[in-house]
Each structure stands twice: as C-alpha cells, then as structure tokens.
Amino acid sequence: MELTELKGIGKTTAVKLQEFGLTDVMDLLFHLPLRYEDKTKITAIDKLTGFSYAQVEGEITKSYVTQGRRPILVCEIDDGSQFMQLKFFNFYYSQKIKMKTGVRIRAYGEIKHGMYGMEIIHPEFTLGEEQPALAQSLTPIYPKSEGISQKLLQKAAAQAITLLEQGAFKLDELLPAQWLSAQQMPTLSDALKFVHKPPPDADVMKLLNHTHPAQQRLKIEEILAHFLAMHQARSAIERLNAPLMPINKMQKQQLLSRLPFELTGAQHRVVNEIHHDLARNHPMQRLVQGDVGSGKTVVAALSIQAALVHGKQAVMMAPTEILAEQHLLTLKDYFPEHEVVFLSGKIKGKIRTEVLAKIASSADVIIGTHALFQADVIYRNLALVIIDEQHRFGVHQRLMLKQKGQANDLTPHSLIMTATPIPRTLAQIAYANLDISVIDELPPNRKVINTVLLDNHKMPQLAERIRHACDKGEQAYWVCTLIEESEHLRAKAAQDTFEELKDWFPDLEVGLIHGRLKSDDKQAVMDRFKANEIQLLIATTVIEVGVDVPNASLMVIENAERLGLSQLHQLRGRVGRGNRQSHCVLMYQAPLSENAQVRLTTMRETNDGFKIARQDLKLRGPGEILGTRQKGSMEFRFSNPEQDAVLFKQAKSMAADLLQSNPDVCEKIIQRWQRQAQELAKV
Ligand code: ADP
Ligand code: MG
After folding, report:
1. In angstroms, rounded to a whole number, what is the distance separating the alpha carbons of residues 273 and 196?
2. Site to substitute for ligand 1 among 298, 420, 437, 579, most atoms within 8 A of C-beta
3. What are phi and psi of 341, to 5 degrees?
4. Structure pTM?
5. Which residue's CA is minimally distant from atom 15 of ligand 1?
C-alpha cells in the first residue's frame, strides 16, 4: 500500500520517507520504536523516586528567572503530595509570563534529583485548567532522520496499525502455531500491534530492553529468515558440480618436504578438512580463520597442490599488490616446476595481453588482486579460488570470480582466508553459509610480542628502542596513523615524519612507503626492506595486512589511540614472525578516552587474536564489526547476536525443522525479510 494513501503524507513527505528506507505502509509496520514514553498516567510527585521518565501535573506556586551568567527559568509546582521544580535554560520571556502562579501545568520529562528535591529539565508541558485526555497507550519514539518529525512517524505508524487491525492488508502468519503457543509468543500481527501501541499495563522495562515477547517474536522471525537465506545460498552452490580433486599422501609430501618447517597440528587439521572438501564433486565453501602469523599461506599452498596434481588451475587473490607480490614469491618457491603468473591493475598493455594468454592456456597458478576477475580474464580450467584477507572484498566480487570457472559446468571450489578472527559463535551466524576451519595454534618458538604503551612525549625512550633493535641487525616499522582528509595529505604528513626521523637517525637507513607511491616504487621499497637495506620503515597503514618480513622485530604505532583493535592487532602482527623477541610500542596522545584506554590495555595484555576479537565485539557490537567489513553479509534490524544468543539458537534449530517440513513457508519467510533487508541496505 502506497504511503500517500495515509493522511498527512503528501508526495514530498513520501519521498523523504522513501529516502529514509520506508517505501510503503508495510515498511512502516516494520519500522519499530526505539523506546517509549509513558503518558498514560500522572505520577504523584512524592512517588517519583525510581522513575527515569514520568509525567506530573500540579499547580504553579512560583516562577522566576535566576540571576547569573546564564538566566534560568525556574517553575515550582505543587500537586498536593509534594513540590518540585521545572527548569528551562532556553526560554522566552513570554513563556515566563504564561507560567503564572495558580496556573495548572502538566509536564513530562526525565526525572532528576536536584538541589531542592525532584526536578525536570526542559520538560514537555501543557498549561491550563483543561488538560488533554491521557494517552491510551505508551507513546512510541521511532528512529528518524533529519527532515522527518517524530510526530509524523507516530501518526503514520498509528494509521498503519489501524489498517492492519481493520484487515486492510494481510500479514500471513508463517511460524508454526504450535511453536508460538509453546513459546508463549504472539502472532506476527499481534506482535506488531503490541510494539507500536503497547497498552498502559505493558511491561515497559522489557520493552526498553527489547526482551518483551512481542519483540522476541519479531526477532525470531528475522533471525530465522537469515538462517534460511544462508541455507538457501549454500544449497544453491552445493547443488552445482565441481572438479573432483583428491590428493594422496605422496602428492602432499612433495610440497611438505620442500618446507623449511613442520606443519603445526592445527595446520594439518585444517589442510585435511580442505582436502576432504576437494575430494568431493561439489564446490567447497570454506572459511579459514587464523590469527596473524598462524601460517595461512602454506595452508593455501597445500590446497593449490591438490588442484595442480589434477592439472587444474588455482587462483589466489589478495587485497593489495604488496601482498599479492609476496604470495607470488612464496608460491613460485613452493611450486618451481609450475607456471605461476601474476595479474594486477598495474600490469597493462602488451604484458597484460601476454599474461591473459597464459591464463587462458598454460598457467597453473595465478596470483593477483581484484584485476583477476575483470571480464576479459578467461581461465583454462579454474578449479580453486582462494581469497586472502576476505574482509577487503565485497560479496559480489566473490561471486564474479566464482562464475569464471563455470564454462564446462564445473564450479570452482572456494576458500576464504581471514586474519581477523571473530568469535566462533558470531562466525557461525555471520558465515552460516560456509564451513569454518580455525587455525588455533601458532608455529612453535614464536615469542610473545612484548607490547608497551608510551606517551607521545617520551620520544627519547622510543629513539633508544629503535636504535637498540637496529644495532642488533634487526629492523623496525614506524606506522603513521594520520587522519588527514585525503590520501595526498596523508602521504605528505608521512613524508614530514620521514624527514624528521632521518634527522633523528642520521646513521640509519630510513625508508618511506605510503598509498600515493606508484606500485613499482612501493614494491621497490618493500624489496629493500626485505633485503635489510632499509632499517627503519616509515609507513602509513598500507602495511596493515599480510606483509611478512621476519627480521623486523620492532613495531612503533604513532597515535595508536586512533585505531580500532583489529587494525592494531593486524599491524602488530607484522612483527614477531621470526623466532626473535619482538616489541610493539603503542604511542598515544593523553588524555585517553575510556574506550581508547580499554583498547590499548587489551593490546598490552594479550596477543591472542580471538581474545582481542571478543573484546572488540564488546566495544563495538556485532553490527559495527560485520557491517563495515562485510557489507551485506549480516544486517539485523532487531536482533543482536550477543544479546539474543538464545533466540539465535532456537531459530537455528527451527530453520532445520522448517526446511524439512515446509519448504514453501521457508521461501515466504525469506522473501518477507529479504525485502526488509534490501530496503535497509539502501539507507
Ligand atoms: P598468516 O597466517 O599471517 O598469513 P603466514 O602464512 O604469512 O601467516 O606465515 C607467517 C610466517 O610463519 C611465515 O614466515 C611462514 O613461513 C611461517 N610459518 C608458517 N607455518 C609455520 C610452521 N608450521 N612452523 C614454522 N613457521 C611457519
Ligand atoms: Mg597472510
């Protein structure tokens, strides 16, 4: 039903609402209140203790403006039980004139304990002997955006509910009636009516905490829709055929014997899980989570090996050229008898044509960046797609690459590797469409990185640390966390730091790398750093992911308070990759916000990526963590994987039952909520 069919909504308003993501009357119903105001009753002033918000009504006994730097209008009222003050910091004198002694006033607002008893600052109020009738239900307060008034949303939602009550449109109940009654949950339409128009006796605390059965009813269907959609996506791929690529012990050993180390138990386990998938004729859909430095690259190589023994192609995609080049070197080393080629945005013209020709004919392993899935890249027989550090890639880029292999009706296997671990429970929700492997062990002899916090003023102490590391033949990173508004200014500021540090350390070889350098120049700097020709490398956060220079043992991060936990953890992971004792110095600018303090102490106290991820989740919430990194992979409007863990569990098992018993209903649930999710994604 069109929004313009509602009273008070003309074309212009409808457009504004649409821009806000509310396209029709149904959307209004699913646009739920954030909180409620209780204007259904008047509370006696002597009973106000314990209320955070309340409505009072009494007679004005006195009103005056205080003398001071900032005049305050104070209005004292008495309701027969007690007296209290209403205070206005912003007011008109005309307002004071109306607030005469003896006039009746009704006021609503946040109750505070003032110097002279209870008070409300800036209450909403009405004056006069004839007060309007009390509200019949709690007043919903909706999330809104600029240009849309709360009143407008309230009126529109109220009309939508009335229409629903009158049966003007249908909202099928899709959950099994038995289950609803067993859980004592209302139907969908009753739940919607309740949350938009809670009766005066509703449990307000539960509503405010989002734990009321009516809210739970809405959440469970939302979560159910998520699991069903994930399942649908998964089984759609599962139905496709993929190349069979079993690998035997000897073939595995070929690569293992070339490594300068033994695999860890966790690496072995994950490799086995992957090889098991590759020996099936349906596409692997697996996510490997492993902390920084846990050795994901070699796991990727062993997966590639399976493709190679069957004469098939494998591609590995990295988010940056630096990383891709690093993988190129490593994999060339691991597979000297195979043709390993490289494709990225910087490969152009004749060379690109040559590379494309190789990819279409002879190449076995293809390494690169997102350039790998441009339309004109044709693969000979792509059988395995590996995506490193997947949070840098959009979901749809992944799909495009997947389609590359479908020429002969075979879909490539896909493996996604991420160094930003998220807690297992959250992973199982966010990646319900994937199998998950975890490399939960670091290679032996890794020393725990020693992390210290240092005030920005303590530069001499820091200088000494840098000198100490370099004197031992080790190397250091210096990361500038610049908040300049453009890449150009960031590069310039990094340049300034570089000049300054060259002055500080005239005897050291200092290098500079930032996002504005041409990719060849970037590579040249990284090569020199790798070869230990640069001792101190000044960098912007471009080095965040993946760079592997085991001889680097000191990481300095300037203004570490500006970065989030996972980014700090990634950066710190650039050291501690060899077997020498490494250090990380987090410089900060005092005073620190409470949140920054927690982040920095967490970093000091643990090196464990999973612990850090849990803390990150606490600080930022799941929406923030998944939302920014994996757009579209998980957006819940009502539910929260942390808070609603029980519902998530229930929804998961309900999804399994429903898929068996009622596929038609499953489809309907997905559609109802997918539409909601799509609308939201537009906002
Ligand atoms: P990440 O998981 O961060 O991608 P890498 O694959 O870059 O980690 O590995 C980090 C370093 O550890 C590399 O230098 C790699 O050669 C080394 N490494 C990997 N596995 C092992 C192992 N089992 N024993 C010793 N060193 C290992
Ligand atoms: Mg890596």
Report:
1. 49
2. 298
3. -120, 165
4. 0.76
5. 295
The atom number, within ligand 1, closest to the CA of 548 reads 7
Instruction: Give the pLDDT confidence score for residue 404 in this predicted structure.
Output: 63
Q: What is the pLDDT of residues 661-682, one digit of tens each?
A: 999 999 999 988 876 655 544 4
Question: Which tokens sit at 169?
Answer: 């449109």
Cα separation of the two ends of the chain: 20
Measured in Å, residue 431 CA sits from the centre of ligand 1 at 25
Contact 443, 299 (CB under 8 A): no
Evaluate the omega torsion of the peptide bond into residue 33 and state whether it is cis, within 30 degrees of 0: no
Contact residues for 142 (Cβ-Cβ < 8 A; gap 6+): 31, 32, 33, 34, 150, 153, 154, 157
Strands 313-317 and 365-368, bridge-based pairing:
parallel
Does ligand 1 have an atom closer than 6 angstroms to the CB of 303?
no
Q: Whose alpha carbon is nearest atom 12 of ligand 1? A: 295
The closest alpha carbon to 557, from 527, 537, 577, 528, belongs to 537
For residue 286, which of 300, 305, 297 has the smallest C-alpha distance?
300
Q: Are residues 89 and 160 in the same domain?
A: no
- The range of the structural domain enclosing residue 596 comes to 450-606
How many whole angstroms separate alpha carbon 645 and alpha carbon 516? 44
Residue nearest to atom 20 of ligand 1 (CA): 295
Q: Taking the CA atoms of the chain, what radius of gyration do you get in angstroms?
A: 31
Chain-centre distance for alpha carbon 440: 22
Decide if 123 contacts 148 (C-beta within 8 A).
no
- Ligand number nearest CA of 579 is 1
* Helix runs in 338-442, H state only: 349-360, 395-403, 424-430
Name which residue sits closest to atom 16 of ligand 1, judged by CA. Answer: 295
Which of 590, 674, 558 has the alpha carbon at shortest distance from 225?
Answer: 674
The answer on pLDDT for 402 being more than 70 is no
Does residue 71 share a domain with residue 197?
no
Which pLDDT value is given to residue 104? 96
Please report which residue ranges of 70-142 form alpha helices under DSSP H: 93-98
- Is the domain of 391 the same as that of 257? yes
* Alpha-carbon span 14 to 2, nearest angstrom: 9
Grouping H, G, I as helix, E, B as strand and the rest as coil, residue 381 is: coil
Strand bridging mode 475-479 / 536-539: parallel
| Tokens representing residue 575 in the block | 């050291």
Residue 20: φ, ψ to 5°: -80, -5
Strand ranges in 481-626 using DSSP code E only, listed in sequence order: 510-513, 536-539, 552-557, 583-588
Looking at 405, 420, 439, the residue that finishes a domain is 439
Q: How much helix, strand and coil, in percent to the nearest 5, is found in the chain? A: 45, 20, 35
Contact predicate 385/401, CB 8 Å: yes
What CATH number has the domain bearing residue 430?
A: 3.40.50.300
Same domain, 304 and 381: yes
Provide the 10 A C-beta neighbour count for residue 605. Answer: 12
Pairing of strands 450-455, 139-141: unpaired
Q: What is the pLDDT of residues 7-25, one digit of tens each?
A: 999 999 999 998 888 889 9
Helices H, strands E: what count in the chain? 23, 21
SS3 for 151? Answer: helix
Q: Total structural domains in the chain?
A: 4
Average pLDDT, the chain: 88
